[in-house]
What does this fold into?
Amino acid sequence: PGQHGPTQRIKLSDYAIRLREKQKLRAHYGVSEKQVRNYMVKAKRAPGNTGENLLRQLESRLDNVTYRLGFTRTIRASRQMVNHGHIEVNGQRVDLPSFQVRPGDIVAIREKSKMRARVAEAIAGPTIMAVPAFLERNDAALSGTMKTKPELGDCPLQINEALVVELYALSL
It folds into this structure.
């Protein structure tokens, strides 16, 4: 190919393009392949657009909601916060990051956890992004409410969800 490698870029196949879109989703939300497949099965069964249903499910995960409310700086930190039991939904402690938050649910940091140094440090940090329209944050009580279901425009990723649906179209 010469001293500096090939001069022309290799054209990606259709499969490679779809795979990259799915991997973007997996990397951003921190979900496994099995979880994505399960979300696809549920999205396919639900009425409406399958791609929108998939993104709606991913945006409604508890770890993502706590991140989008600004309680942590990253989704991974949010996932750890949920796993360690610092988050409650409607007054009940929930330690499953994949818990699906529904409209009307109140997500809050537990009273015991507010006094812990690590949690206080995570909360005190600057919020990186604005709270999306489907969520409402109460700074005084360190809580937030999901007002409505997330829409397609609420996803911060520039992703073509139709390509992900096409990738799974044959296998599911």
Observations:
- The mean pLDDT is 88.
- The helical segments are 14-29, 33-45, 50-59, 62-68, 75-83, 111-114, 117-124, 161-169.
- The first strand starts at residue 87 and ends at 89.
- The first helix runs from residue 14 to 29.
